[in-house]
Design goal:
A hairpin with a 5-residue loop joins strand 5 and strand 6. Helix content is about 30%, strand content about 35%. The chain starts with a strand and ends with a helix. It contains three helices and seven strands; from the N terminus they run βααββββββα. It is an alpha+beta fold. Strands 1-4-5-6-3 form a five-stranded antiparallel β-sheet. A two-stranded antiparallel ribbon has the order 2-7.
Length: about 130
């Protein structure tokens, strides 16, 4: 599991100070990109392009469990819950400072070859890296 810290910014919130619903998808996606940066030892998207593959999102499931407000810090735990032949799924869990689970999200990525944009098997080094956080 990889943990990403994220402070809720003023711009993430509505006039009442509650996080806008669409921002949770950004929090989850950004956390998985940060996790991929750790796994690939460099900026995630740039590193994937350099290695010859891309990972667009195939499926996204988000569940809201507790309100989140401006200036709170989230600890977002990222783990791998599924590794397929051409795809992998991250699960994110966003916790508030007091340990309350605020949201969960499952995000499935599919691997495509960088130049042709065709489905391609997970590269071996990616599979090995994903196994380390599953």
């Amino acid at each position: 599991m990889i943990t990403v810290k994220r402070k809720v910014l003023f711009g993430d919130c509505d006039p009442e100070g509650i996080v806008y619903t669409p921002r949770f998808s950004s929090f989850a996606l950004e956390a998985t990109h940060d996790a991929m940066a750790v796994l690939l030892e460099g900026p995630a998207i740039a590193r994937m392009k350099q290695l010859g593959f891309l990972t667009p999102v195939r499926a996204f499931n988000l569940e809201f469990l507790s309100p989140v407000t401006w200036d709170q810090e989230l600890s977002i735990h990222v783990s791998v819950v599924d590794i397929g032949n051409h795809s992998f799924t991250f699960q994110t869990k966003g916790f508030l400072d007091n340990g309350i689970l605020a949201f969960t999200a499952n995000i499935t990525y599919v691997t495509l070859s960088s130049p042709e944009k065709l489905k391609t098997p997970l590269p071996g080094y990616l599979r090995e890296a994903l196994l380390r956080v599953s």
